[in-house]
Amino acid sequence: MTSNDQLPASTVDLAPTPQESSPDKLALRRFLKNPAAVIGVVALVIIVLASALAPFISPYPPNEIDLTNTRQAPSGEHWLGTDSTGRDVFSRLLAGGQISLMVGFLAALMAVVIGTLAGVVAGWFGGIVDGIISRVIDIMLSVPPVLVIIVLAGIIGPSVPMLIIVIAGLAWPTPARIARGVVLSLREEEFVQAARALGSRTGFILFRHLVPGVLPPIVVSATLLVAESVLLESSLSFLGAGVQPPESSWGNMLNEAQSLTVLSSMPWLWVPAGLMIAVTVLSAMAIGDGVRDAIDPRKNS
């Protein structure tokens, strides 16, 4: 048998093998295999879109009062009934979603930005800087947020900007602690030491090497902070220290549920808002769990 007779067999070994998927693709594949996380994304997107399009899909202005139609049960005219002043519950539910979601997302975003920067600085510089920031984090984590916001609402008056700023100011220690822990491990890695040996500036090292390494766990923390912020805003609005009437939020819509009569015989006044809060919080938490599992380096498929 000549060498030419073996040529077709040898060419089989030269066939290109498919390349392994990138870490991002593997993470996305793991996320899509998580049914709870996918359902959470779909549910949250629907809620956000419905709230954003509220001015176009609401059948009535959310603050329009009709004293001849108070506490009417759901019907073809009012899909979710009317409240104690005759306002359409469905329209107020959509308008309330705008405020509740805005508070949740903006407060979480501010907390993540502040916390990430504080944690990265503490982890990188160490020493007295780390000591000061760590003590501030410990103090902030010991402060009861509901009590602080109620006191501030009594002093400066409740408002949406106050809620966003105070919730963010009380929530940033959680991402800060996460970022600090990640940076403490990353700063000893060879690529960071090499950047320092080459004379790279501190700002370049922080934003080019450390912040990207902090982002994966911070994204998980951000999704959980959205859930916590929405829940906190709803609780405060229910207590009267959050969004004030006539503006609508899911929390102050639940104010109607303080009456035993409403709880027992008029569920349309409080069940829709309660469901929106529950679905939003559960969806955000499911997404956070899905992202955490997807970026887990111990999972290889």
Q: Can you characterise this structure?
A:
With 301 residues, the protein is mostly helical. The chain is 69% helix and 0% strand. It has a single domain (40-49, 89-294), classed as Orthogonal Bundle (MetI-like fold), CATH 1.10.3720.10. Mean pLDDT is 85; it is low at 9-19. It contains 14 helices and no strands.
* Shape call: elongated
CATH topology: MetI-like fold
Number of domains: 1
List how many beta strands DSSP finds: 0
Descriptive tags:
single chain, 301 residues, mainly alpha, MetI-like fold, 14 helices, 69% helix
Give a quick summary of the entry:
This protein is 69% helix and 0% strand. The protein has 301 residues and is an all-alpha fold. The chain has a single domain (40-49, 89-294), classed as MetI-like (MetI-like fold).
